Amino acid sequence: MDKLVACQTCGLVQGVDDVPKNSVIKCARCNFQIFHRRVNSRARTLAFSLAALILYFPSNLYPIITADYQGQHTQTTIFQGISSLFAHQQYFIASLIFCTSILTPALKIIGLIFITLTLGWPKWKKARTWIFKIISIIDPWNMLEVFLLAICVSMVELGEVATVHPGRGVFAFAACVVLTLLATLSFDSRLLWDSPEEKRHYE
Amino acid sequence: MNENARTLPQAKIERSRFSWFLWLIPIAAALLCTWYVCRDYIFAGPTITIYFQNAEGLQEQNSIVQYRGVKIGEVGTLKLMKDRQRVSVTAELDTAAAGIAREGSVFWIVRPEVKLGSVSGLRTIVLGNYITVQPGNGSPTNLFVGAEKEPIEPIQALDIQLLATKLDSLQPQSPVFYRGIQVGEVLDCRLSDDARAVLIHARIGEQYAPLVRMNSKFWNAGGIDFHLGLFSGAKLTAESAQTLISGGIAFATPPDFQKAATNGAIFSLNEKSDAEWEKWSPAIPLHAVPEAMTNETPLPNFKLK
Prior knowledge:
By secondary structure, chain A is of the alpha+beta class. Helices cover 54% and strands 14% of the residues of chain A. Chain A is built from seven helices and seven strands; from the N terminus they run E-E-E-E-H-E-E-H-H-H-H-E-H-H. In chain A, strands 6-5-7 form a three-stranded antiparallel sheet. A two-stranded antiparallel ribbon of chain A has the order 1-2. A two-stranded antiparallel sheet of chain A has the order 3-4. In chain A, helix 1 (41-61) packs antiparallel against helix 3, helix 1 packs antiparallel against helix 6 (170-186) and helix 2 (78-87) packs antiparallel against helix 3 (91-117). The longest helix of chain A has 27 residues, at 91-117. The model of chain A has no long low-confidence stretch (mean pLDDT 80). Chain B folds into two domains: 47-145, no CATH class; 157-286, no CATH class. Chain B contains six helices and 19 strands. In chain B, the strands form four sheets. Chain B has a seven-stranded mixed sheet with strand order 6-9-3-4-5-2-10, with no helix packed on it. A seven-stranded mixed beta barrel of chain B has the order 11-14-13-12-18-15-19. A two-stranded antiparallel sheet of chain B has the order 7-8. Chain B is elongated, with a radius of gyration of 33 Å. Chain A binds chain B through residues 1, 4-5, 12-17, 19-20, 22-29, 31, 34, 40, 43-44, 47-48, 50-52, 54-55, 57-58, 62, 70-75, 168, 171-172, 175, 179, and chain B through 5, 8-16, 19, 22-23, 25-26, 28-30, 32-33, 36, 59, 61-62, 64, 74, 126-128.
């Protein structure tokens, strides 16, 4: 008996032995998992960001909306939507949507993958910190979800005039949004400045 | 303190067995992508190129290819050929319709058409012009020369040629009558090769084919026939209301009829009927309506349990 922990769920203080790798601590009373850091942070972040990166391509290459209107059959990808906004002189909205739904998700996904992959390297510690700072800055601007919501609204609203249905890319798009969110949530920034011993313990 | 600590419960330590489940997420994402790629590039139907004289009414990425009223593909690009004589149209066919990309298939563009006596392709006014096809059964190919208009379907029927001095009001789809009943129609009209007569291609429905004999008489039944006789008074005749606008052909077969006409038989088309021809009424047994004429594919036989 060398340590005391308190359960986050029921508050019971209890003793705990050394925890071997690939094991979890469970509360003696409520059987809920007790953790010190975010559980399995590095592996989770890496898995979620990899999946998001893979789905990023179909979500941008495949049409999000298909509309049938008086014999016109149009399929629109996000990028085509942005360029048509540009063509209609809506420069501000077009660049806003470009940043929030194409640029920042890509930066964020690539940044998280870079950090999680190079975490064990003694080099580039500063670079990782910088990347994490950039991710924290662009994160609030990352509002893919809002755009998705706008699409859903237009699907419902336009239903009377034209036949609008989700395109093939919409599932990949939604999955990409959720996975990016999960990747950010599961990343523990303390991993960035852990000493090598701590790293071995918490990864 | 030590005594207190001894009374504290001990937390359980369990091996986390399912941590590798996490890696199923990127694998699932990769599988989804593979499926997208497979569906688009490996399981996709063939892309065919059709050369049309005139692709009027087709739209890039927008027009569709239909067969029997069902969408079987989409038009990709429209391009003018270098010699400016033709337009090449690429179309992506669905996997289910891959069998249509065969030699002998005839593609044509359906456009709205308003002719005297018939209106066709009205749907295209709203939905846009589309390409449709009459499938052939040659070897698979990706290059086709599009037809300008709907090809004449090779159904079982009697095709005859009529020679006339002039066309009058006849036109494609003008009816052919026997005793006032429509038994066939004109398919197309053209000048003979030496330009001395008009060749009219008419088709008689197969069940009425025995009515046409080698010595049958054909006459132009279009328009109104107006007679003013001293004893009979004024007489106004017309074969049917339709012939008033679209013209028509009537024929009669003499009682001493010869053998039945064969495909491609040539008759002369008289300008007027003869009173004697109209009195002819030979007894000719007709064919029963064969299956090919009802234009229905027999249903597959389902075994009832």
